[in-house]
Amino acid sequence: MQILLSEGLIRTPPTFQTRSLTRAFSIRVAFVVVLVLAAKANAGDKSKWTYTSEQGRGYFAHQAKDNWMEVHPEGYRFSFQQTEQTADYVELFDRSRGKIWVRLYSNRSTWKHPELTNGEWRDLYRGRYEIERIEWGYKNPQGAGFFRNLDGAEWVEYYPDGRRVPFTEVARNSDFIELSDRKINQIDVRLYADYSEWRHATRTKGEWSKLWEGRYRANAHERLKFTYLETDGSPAIFVARPTLWIQFASGKEHKFRLESSSSDRYVLIDDERKLAITLFKDGRIQSKTGNGSWQNLGSGKGTWGLQLFLKS
Fold it and tell me: What is the pLDDT of residues 118-162, one digit of tens each?
C-alpha cells in the first residue's frame, strides 16, 4: 500500500481505504526532496533532488520561504513545511496529516511517524542532486568559454578572448535551455547536458547544427545578490564575491570593492570609474561620482536574494 499525502485531504489509489491506516503493517510513503545548497533555505525553484520509485520519477521542490511541494510520479502534488535545517539535512513536516516528518540528506531521505515507525527515523528513498543550470562551460580551438545566467532570462556568453555577448532565454525543458541572440550575431543556441547546438538563418540554413561539447558546472554555492532595473528598464545585478562585488549591467561587468558595511547598508567603490554605490538593506540603491551628491540609481529600488554560482 502507499499513502499519498496532501494538504487538507488524504489522496489514495482507488482501492485504498483510509481505515486501513490503523492496521497497516507495511507502508511506503512516497516523497521527493530538494536540498538547499547553502545555510539558508532559499534555493529557489530550479534546484531539486530526485528519485525513482516503483511508480516512476518524482521530486520535491522548494517554493518560497518554508514552503515545499512534492510532485509525485503519478502526478499528485502535496504541500510540506520546513521545520529545521542543519549542515546534514533539511527537516519537513506534513501539514495535512501531522505526525509525519521527513529528513532530507544529500543522497538519502528518512521519515518517522509516532505509530507507523514507532517514532523512529527510518530509511525512505535514495536520490541525487540535480544541479541548478546556471553556468555551462565549453572549450573550442580558441580556448575556454562559458554561458552564464545573470538573472531571470538574462544570459551572457563569455568568449575565450574575453568578449561578452548577451543572450535571452526563450525556452527550457529537461533536455536543454534555449538562448537567443537577436542583437549581435542573430543566432539561437541550445545547451544540453554535454553538448550545444546553434541555428542561424543562412549559416546553418535555419537548421540546428552541432556546436561545442561542454557541460553544466558542478560545485554550486550561493552568494548574496541585489537585483534592480536601470533607467531604460533593463535588469542589472550586484553579486557578492569572497573579496569583491561584481555588477552585471547591459552585458558588461564591473568590479567593486566593499568600502564598508553596517546593519542597514553596503557601500561599494569602483576605483577605476570613481563611482560609489550604496545598497540599502531595505531595497534602496543610490550612487555618486567623485565628490558629487548621492542620487537614486536606475529605478532607485531593488530586491535582495541569493544567486547560485558555480566554481570554475
Answer: 999 999 888 776 666 788 999 999 888 899 887 678 898 988 887
For 151, phi then psi, to 5°, come to -175, 135
Report residue 137 as a C-alpha cell. 562551460
Rounded CA-CA distance 203/193 in Å is 24
Phi, psi (rounded to 5 degrees) for 96: -80, -45
Q: What would you report as the CA-atom Rg of the chain, rounded to the nearest whole angstrom?
A: 24
Q: Give yes or no for residue 246 having a pLDDT over 80.
A: yes
The HSE-up count of residue 301 (CA atoms within 13 Å, CB side) is: 1
H or E segment and range at residue 205? none
Q: Minimal CA–CA distance to 5: which of 51, 52, 72, 81? A: 72
The proportion of the chain whose per-residue pLDDT surpasses 70, expressed as a percent, equals: 76
For residue range 217-231, list pLDDT tens digits in order: 754 455 678 899 988
Beta bridge partners of 265: 280
* Spatial separation of the C-alpha atoms in residues 101 and 5, rounded to whole Å: 12
Closest alpha carbon to 187 in 175, 173, 204: 204
Return the domain boundaries, the chain: 2-130, 135-216, 220-310
Strands (E), 127-264: 128-130, 135-140, 143-151, 154-158, 164-172, 177-181, 187-191, 195-200, 209-216, 220-229, 235-240, 245-249, 252-261
- Give CA–CA dist 176/194, Å, rounded: 10
134, three cell numbers = 546556471
